[in-house]
Design brief:
The chain is an alpha/beta fold. Helices cover 34% and strands 17% of the residues. The structure holds adenine.
């Protein structure tokens, strides 16, 4: 997958050079290219922003530099994403969908955002990483590259490793433990040491439903609950009401 990132601060993206995404870039499974929007300013002072028409606070990123930066990378096939708090809130199913693309172009805004004509003419998706406002789209872009990149085949060492995790199946993941068996007086649940894989799977599914019910009950509304799940959930509710 090829990702072009249009930004005023390419140096911020050094965070991506590490760990799994860095390795995928070294191995050419992911190719991430940074385009400095300022390089496309034709202003003698290299300005990329201006006052908003109609008045109001702050500055708006001018259309020309972004337009020319886009033209330098876009091609026919690219899916153009603008990171903005005004966008659709990002989630795992959007990451999965975007991971199917061969070429993504991410536009990072700053100040009061970008001239709307860029959105009208070029942008396929407006994405927010959450209901809060960042100082710019760079950190949001890195969130997308990390979460989409790891779903690209060949990026994770074993593709199965994301099958079970939180959100992949629509609910949160079960708790994980590793050695030592006893730590600061706390022990690993016996079932995980039993070697009985069927029982372990049942325990994990129960815990996953319980975590989801407690922390993100909204996820259960779109999760396909089986008959057994409904019984388990009633048990969880019972158990929790007794704990109160
Ligand atoms: N730019 C500023 N805030 C943002 C957010 N929450 N998501 C994506 N891009 C942003």
């Amino acid at each position: 997958m090829k990702i072009d990132i249009l930004t005023l601060f390419p140096e911020m993206f050094s965070a991506l050079e590490h760990s799994i995404i860095g390795r995928a870039m070294d191995n050419n499974i992911l190719s991430v290219n940074y385009v400095n929007i300022r390089d496309f300013s034709q202003d003698k002072h290299n300005r990329v922003d201006d006052y908003p028409f109609g008045g109001g606070p702050g500055m708006v990123m001018k259309p020309g530099p972004i337009d020319r930066a886009l033209e330098s990378v876009k091609g026919e096939d690219a899916r153009v994403v603008y990171l903005t708090p005004k966008g659709k809130v990002f989630n795992h199913s959007m990451a999965k969908e975007l991971a199917q693309e061969d070429h993504l172009v991410l536009i990072c805004g700053h100040y009061e955002g970008i001239d709307n004509r860029i959105i009208e003419n070029y942008v396929d998706d407006m994405i927010s990483i959450g209901d809060y406002v960042l100082t710019g789209g760079e950190i949001a872009s890195m969130v997308l590259v990390d979460s989409i990149g790891r779903l690209v085949p060949g990026v994770l060492p074993k593709e199965e490793s994301y099958m079970e995790e939180s959100h992949y199946g629509g609910i949160l993941e079960y708790p994980q433990y590793t050695r030592p068996r006893e730590y600061n007086g706390l022990s690993v649940p016996d079932i995980l040491l039993s070697g009985n894989h069927k029982k372990i799977d049942q325990w994990r599914h129960y815990q996953a439903l319980k975590n989801t019910y407690i922390t993100r009950p909204d996820l259960l509304e779109s999760y396909k609950l089986t008959k057994e799940d409904k019984i388990i959930l009633n048990k969880i509710k019972d158990e929790l009401s007794k704990e109160k």
